[in-house]
Amino acid sequence: MKKLKLLQFLIPGLLILFLFSCSKDEVTGITPCIQTIIESAKDFACSNSSIGEYKFQHRTVFVIATNLCSPDAGADVLDINCKEIGYLWGFSGSTKIDGVEFFKNANFIRTLWNN
């Protein structure tokens, strides 16, 4: 009988603790600088914006497409330390990074954020 009463309080308590300890807004497995960009995008990005993770030229890169409000806007391509390695689309319509077609040679990993 004591075990039953203990379970009546323990299970709801653990459930509440679990629900409030999870943060659905934080993305796992990324560097703090990328997390900061995601947090900033939530407040300032244009509609239909996204931040995607890719594997390109044997490294993890991120396409930051948060400023596509105007027809000549593009997307930054950053490495895991937020160093810019290239720029896609934009006024020039570029689709290459380091002379290599990005989307033909990059492997999409996941969408980190979109609106």
- Alpha plus pi helix count: 3
Secondary-structure element string: HHEEEEEEHE
The tally of strands reads 7
Widest beta sheet: strand line-up: 4-3-2-1-7
* Mean residue pLDDT: 81
Tell me, briefly, the overall form: globular
Query: How many whole angstroms does the radius of gyration measure?
Result: 20 Å
Summarize the biggest pleated sheet: 5 strands, antiparallel
Percent strand equals 25-35%
Report how far apart the termini are.
51 Å
Ranges where pLDDT stays below 50 over 5 or more residues in a row are 2-24
Output the structural class. Answer: alpha+beta
Work out the helicity level. Answer: 25-40%
Describe the structure.
The structure is a single chain. The chain is α+β, with helices and mostly antiparallel strands and 115 residues long. It is built from three helices and seven strands. The strands form two sheets. A five-stranded antiparallel beta sheet has the order 4-3-2-1-7. A two-stranded antiparallel ribbon has the order 5-6. The longest helix has 20 residues, at 2-21. The chain is globular. It starts with a helix and ends with a strand.
Topology at a glance:
Blueprint: H1 2-21, H2 32-44, E1 50-56, E2 59-65, E3 74-79, E4 84-89, E5 96-97, E6 100-101, H3 102-105, E7 107-114
Antiparallel strand pairs: 1-2, 1-7, 2-3, 3-4, 5-6
